[in-house]
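tokens incoming
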């Protein structure tokens, strides 16, 4: 699965997601995009290979954006903060969520 870490997620978890191609919003030049524009950019990447999932800590994204008609899924990490030390314990549940995530779906992983 091709995964994008939102700009609000540190890049550290990428090493903990074996079997997934992980990019960051900053690497893609999308670090300053608002949620809707970010989802549009991800959806428009057809010729370079689609990005299948967005991993974010933005709890409001699913309420602010229409996800169900998108060719990608969203995983929202719910932790005390977006510090790497708070997010790493969520990695096993994140891997499980990614393994069952469908396009247009939102999954929440809480710590």
């Amino acid at each position: 699965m091709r995964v994008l870490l939102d700009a609000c997620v540190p890049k550290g978890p990428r090493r903990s997601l074996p079997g997934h191609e992980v990019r960051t919003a900053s690497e893609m030049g999308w670090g300053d995009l608002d949620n809707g524009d970010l989802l549009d950019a991800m959806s428009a990447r057809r010729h370079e290979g689609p990005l299948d999932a967005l991993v974010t800590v933005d709890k409001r994204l699913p309420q602010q954006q229409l996800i169900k008609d998108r060719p990608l899924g969203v995983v929202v990490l719910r932790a005390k903060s977006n510090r790497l030390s708070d997010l790493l314990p969520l990695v096993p549940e994140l891997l499980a969520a990614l393994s069952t995530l469908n396009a247009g779906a939102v999954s929440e992983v809480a710590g």
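note: The chain is about 25% helix and 20% strand.
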